[in-house]
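anyone seen this seq b4? input:
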Amino acid sequence: MRSRLIAFFALLVAAPLLAACDDPRVAGVFGRNQPTTQAPAPAPAVTPPPLIMPVPAAPVVQEPVPAAPVQQEATPAIPPGPKGAPRVAFLVPLSGPNAAVGRALLDAATLALYDVADDEFVLLPRDTGGTPEGAVAAFDWAVEQGARLVVGPLLSAEAQAIAPRAREAGIAALAFSNDVAAASSNVFVLGLAPQASIRRTVDFARSRGLEKFVALVPNNAIGLASEAAFRDALIATQGTLVRVERYDPGTLDVTPWVRRAGNVGPPPPRAQRGEAAREPPELDFEAILLPDLGDRLAQVASQLHLHEIDPARIRFLGIPQWDDPRSLREPSLLGGWFAGPPPEARQSFERHYREVFGRAAPRVATLAYDAVALAAVLARDKGAEGADYSLPVLTVPTGFAGIEGIFRFLPSGLVDRGLAVIEVRREGPFAISPARDSFETPAN
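predicted toks r here
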């Protein structure tokens, strides 16, 4: 029998309703001089996003882009809310270098409130400052306020800091990190970790007949985690790892590592008029893993092309962090593969977010929406003891359906997701192997 997924349709309430400081369900907003969301003129009707149900994801967490520090306001009084109302804490940095990301997460959470939550649901935002100490203080405050579930914090160090408190209090936390080291029995990492993505990509590559692989990785946390996952995936699928090269992530010239990874010499001089083009070098591998992002990824890919190692001959393989506008527009990555949530799934959310807030949603915003939407859905089934956010409920094997597809929480603290294999194309990312729609259905 097809698994029964706990799912819900987002209602996408009109944008003018979004003024979080006036919403009794948002108990307090910290680190702002303005309301959490500012309602623009009425927006046109928005097509509802797909089913929302819980799933893992993103850079180990890919640490957010620093923003200017924000002056933190005095904590406002917390309204009690209706008697027995489900209380969920939302712990993010609303001051400090990651305040801009924290605000975007809170904005996405507010969208989920208006789209999904009923009038009895109460969200309790609290500033962590982006530090382990701030996260622990915010968690302790949330317990004092009667929170039954914690959404957040943002960074791996924060998530690891609150883990002992979460176990002691018997409260689960849905952290935004994608660092598997932050996962524990009571702390689930929502971010899409490279391990799951790489295994899905390698499985697909092997199904397409690719046998020999090379890895060219930055010598940092995300590179080493990706290398380990790559080795494990190739052992599991009986693929061959020909070479691994680790380059200094601070280098301005990756040429030496590119040549060693490809086992090639210097690129040939450009052929003069009338001269026959030289045959490209023979390569002893069929695919290369490039677990990097941003300008450094573009530099690595460009150097590979210069040395005649390009997707016309070799398949480039990536990680979820390729799913950003810069990487998807990089010409040297065209034809590359990586695994991630289906690209079309979040388009309605991104349109909705832009119409309400007048700016693009950061990639991590969908995690905040799905986590708060899930909490609101589970709160609807509250019994005499209130909403049930216990581990057996959260770790139901059939999982949930969210903006970016299906996901489920594992007892280890990791999050299992339905991932598509995506190809980088000129017209945009395209799923060449769709994500499964049920955890009872194997991936294609």
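The two ends are 19 Å apart (CA to CA). The domain at 194-340+422-433 is CATH 3.40.50.2300 (Rossmann fold). kinda curious what u guys think
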